[in-house]
Amino acid sequence: xxxxxxxxxxxxxxxxxxxxxxxxxxxxxxxxxxxxxxxxxxxxxxxxxxxxxxxxxxxxxxxxxxxxxxxxxxxxxxxxxxxxxxxxxxxxxxxxxxxxxxxxxxxxxxxxxxxxxxxxxxxxxxxxxxxxxxxxxxxxxxxxxxxxxxxxxxxxxxxxxxxxxxxxxxxxxxxxxxxxxxxxxxxxxxxxxxxxxxxxxxxxxxxxxxxxxxxxxxxxxxxxxxxxxxxxxxxxxxxxxxxxxxxxxxxxxxxxxxxxxxxxxxxxxxxxxxxxxxxxxxxxxxxx
Length: 288
Fold this sequence. Notes:
Blueprint: E1 16-21, H1 31-40, E2 45-47, E3 65-74, E4 78-84, H2 98-107, E5 111-114, H3 127-132, E6 138-143, H4 156-164, E7 170-174, E8 187-192, H5 197-205, E9 209-212, E10 217-223, E11 226-231, E12 236-240, E13 246-251, E14 254-258, E15 267-273, E16 279-281, E17 285-286
Parallel strand pairs: 1-2, 2-3, 5-6, 6-7
Antiparallel strand pairs: 1-8, 3-4, 4-5, 8-9, 10-11, 11-14, 12-13, 12-15, 15-16, 15-17
């Protein structure tokens, strides 16, 4: 698998955007019912990440592209999703440290996502913890389930602090669905040239996707020092810089910004806002 091109995560984008969810459980609804619901809602790829159990899709009748996965409860205090193409190469042993689990899974080129950092009144991951860990792929910047629980479903403030400290991590949008009624339309939109597991997983690993919550991005990228985005239904586009500062706001469906106009900022990410709660998030573009 390739690495993230942090100057332009969308450099190798394909001609299709495919939607998927990477954090799903079957505790409250059977696997077949969860899969049917995601199919009905137009998802293309899905990972089942039950607690402490590596997914097994043997005999599963579905059109969805299934990604192997597990949610690890680390010493019953921290949660991390590990995803991969090969069930046998997902590493999991009880009572190992977060860093140990990350290191062993990265050796197998798996995807490691630290989940819902702002869940619970005592946040699930404080900033200092997130900043200490190395080599993980990203964090959940939005977790739909946490809307109904203590804490915040949104973790973009922590994401900006990490990016400002030089921690290059991706932002994921997941449901954390435990039953059919938890499933919604948000997800991760991967840009691919063909719909197969390897291509989709490569897009996720290299950051060639955006977090979707109602605003559809048609095109996004970088031309020299200019970042641009075109959407189907945005009402407002925000360019976010170092530490979460709003660098530019543009009303409408498309906008651009030039790094030379904001010389003190080492990264820029894009938020596309629609009607009501609709919003989609780009991955960060770093100056160098």
